[in-house]
Amino acid sequence: MEGGAPAGEQRDRETLGAVRSVVFKPSISLEEKRFPRVAGYDFNRGLDLLGLLDSMSSTGFQASNLGDAIEVVNQMIDWRLSHETPAEDCSEEERNPAYRESVGCKIFLGFTSNLVSSGIREIIRFLVQHQMVEVLVTTAGGIEEDLIKCLAPTYKGDFSLPGAYLRSKGLNRIGNLLVPNDNYCKFEDWIMPILDQMLLEQTTENTVWTPSKVIARLGKEINVESSYLYWAYKNGVSVYCPALTDGSLGDMLYCHSVRNPGLLVDIVQDIRAMNGEAIHVGPRKTGVIILGGGLPKHHICNANMFRNGADYAVYINTAQEFDGSDSGAQPDEAISWGKIKGSAKTIKISQFRNEKVVNKLQQWVWATDLKWL
Amino acid sequence: MSDEEHHFESKADAGASKTYPQQAGAIRKNGYIVIKGRPCKVVEVSISKTGKHGHAKCHFVAIDIFNAKKLEDIVPSSHNCDVPHVNRTDYQLIDISEDGFVSLLTDNGNTKDDLRLPTDESLLTQIKDGFAEGKDLVVTVMSAMGEEQICALKDIGPKS
């Protein structure tokens, strides 16, 4: 450019200096405790599950959320009344150190029915089998899918299998899983005599059925160790399902009521019991682990509201909060309702994936070759 | 859940069967079906294919042929239902007694006196009025599953 060279250089230096101070703004140093360093798992260490899970916290994004959730769940498992100072007005028994050592956190586990259709059912069964959770809340499908799997299996299919084609073959699709109609026929044949018997007990023995009592009975009747409901019955784990009619179970209740009417199922008694699960914990803490959204999520949180909030909360779901749904709400929203304590340890693990590209590809594959089915 | 439960109401009869079995899927509108031990005429049938609710099902809405009550049933379409034998016989009306029984002339010249007047208002009025006017009346008696009832009326007398 024109003009004196030294004046131009001076301007350049000033501009550079200004840019540097913006782009290369000196950073504060982060304290490691609050901001751990990012580091993933080193597979040179070999295949080590616990090591891999430990590394989640420092891996970032949802892996870190998973690591935090593991930490919260471990706290739920480890907490004892002996960790707290005794309340001033507590009883003699409550002051006893041995007693305090024996009192742990009460854990509520909620899950939607699609998880029971999937292999997560086996993990739920493990937790119930070993009494690691005390209260379960799920939807009707969460009950029937477990029972039906004892009668006939669910199969792995594909998200893009065409609906009309599947209907014509008597296959029902749950995501990328398939449940043949025949499975539901077997369920019908299995459950109808049980409903007859339950109606008989209602009329002759004055039994008052509630969803949780119906579920316990079904767990008793299925009598197979692969079923989580069997273990729930065996171990006295309560399973609540206020919307028991919203599934194949509801279809069975409907058909049964036409042929052999009169069976009553009392949901009022069950809401007493469910809220009581939270209210009557005494000095114990409560923790909630909720997989999925919808009814199980709200029902558990609402019950905990009656004790001014759960002490630990882990949510794992795919819902988002932008639509104001309860399903997508973060734990902090529940704190505003008193469903989770303000002081609680909470974490939400979000899962979200853009399916469009994947689906387009799969549809092309299926359009060209449907023969393999 | 079997439909055998409908068989328990066996009537003391002369030996002829009151009902016969038929596959639920074969029973059509305007056919007959036994629901909760009552003989009924089918007014509506809908079929839902095998699915989440289990086996394919026939949903029947039917009217009790004697007391006009609406009854419903849902039966797996492959199961058997009971279908009532419904017979209609004509008898000449001879007399109406004070306590509401009718006296009818049978084919072989005997009288049949065990039948009450029908409960249906319009039919009842027709019979009473017609008889009072001295008309020659023939009643149609519908019978099914050991129960009988007058269901129709004919004036066979000369046109006046």
From TrEMBL, chain A:
A Pfam family reported for this protein in Swiss-Prot or TrEMBL:
DS
GO molecular function (one): deoxyhypusine synthase activity
Q: Name its co-factor(s).
A: NAD(+)
SUPFAM superfamilies cross-referenced by the UniProt entry: DHS-like NAD/FAD-binding domain
Q: Which is a Gene Ontology cellular component entry for this protein?
A: cytoplasm
The alphabetized UniProt keywords are: NAD, Transferase
Q: Does the keyword DNA damage apply?
A: no
InterPro entries, alphabetically? Answer: Deoxyhypusine_synthase, Deoxyhypusine_synthase_sf, DHS-like_NAD/FAD-binding_dom
**Family recorded in the similarity comment:** Belongs to the deoxyhypusine synthase family.
Name of this protein: Deoxyhypusine synthase
UniProtKB/TrEMBL annotation, chain B:
Q: Which PANTHER family match?
A: TRANSLATION INITIATION FACTOR 5A FAMILY MEMBER
**Protein's GO biological process:** positive regulation of translational elongation; positive regulation of translational termination
Q: What does this protein do?
A: Translation factor that promotes translation elongation and termination, particularly upon ribosome stalling at specific amino acid sequence contexts. Binds between the exit (E) and peptidyl (P) site of the ribosome and promotes rescue of stalled ribosome: specifically required for efficient translation of polyproline-containing peptides as well as other motifs that stall the ribosome. Acts as ribosome quality control (RQC) cofactor by joining the RQC complex to facilitate peptidyl transfer during CAT tailing step.
| Region ranges (Disordered) | 1-20
Q: Name one GO molecular function term.
A: translation initiation factor activity
Q: Does the keyword Transport apply?
A: no
Task: Write out the similarity annotation.
Answer: Belongs to the eIF-5A family.
Protein name per its UniProtKB record: Eukaryotic translation initiation factor 5A
Q: Which SMART domains match?
A: eIF-5a (SM01376)
Q: Which UniProt keywords are present, listed alphabetically?
A: Hypusine, Initiation factor, Protein biosynthesis
Q: Which organism is it from?
A: Canna indica
Write down the superkingdom of origin: Eukaryota
Bias type Basic and acidic residues, positions = 1-12
Q: Which residues form the Translation initiation factor 5A C-terminal domain?
A: 85-154
* PTM section of the record: eIF-5A seems to be the only eukaryotic protein to have a hypusine residue which is a post-translational modification of a lysine by the addition of a butylamino group.
